TrEMBL record:
This is Uncharacterized protein. It comes from the Bacteria. It comes from Bradyrhizobium macuxiense.
C-alpha cells in the first residue's frame, strides 16, 4: 500500500475521530494504538514482510 492509498482509505471512513489501531498479530482482538509515523528504508522480503533496505517507506508507530 502506498501513502496515497492509505490516506484515501482513511479519508473515506465516516468516523474521522476514531482512534487508529493496528492488529497486534499474535493475539486476536488485541491492537496497538497508533501514535505517529516515521520515515524509514526497507527491502521487501514478501507481500507481508520487509527488512532494513534502501526503498523509502513510512512506519506507522
Amino acid at each position: 500500500m502506498k501513502v496515497r492509498e492509505l490516506i484515501q482509505a482513511l479519508q473515506a471512513l465516516p468516523d474521522q475521530d476514531a482512534t487508529v489501531v493496528i492488529g497486534e498479530g499474535a493475539q486476536p482482538e488485541t491492537w496497538l494504538i497508533v501514535s505517529g509515523v516515521a520515515e524509514c528504508r526497507i527491502a521487501r522480503v514478501n507481500d507481508d514482510h520487509a527488512v532494513a533496505g534502501s526503498q523509502p517507506a513510512i512506519e506507522i508507530v
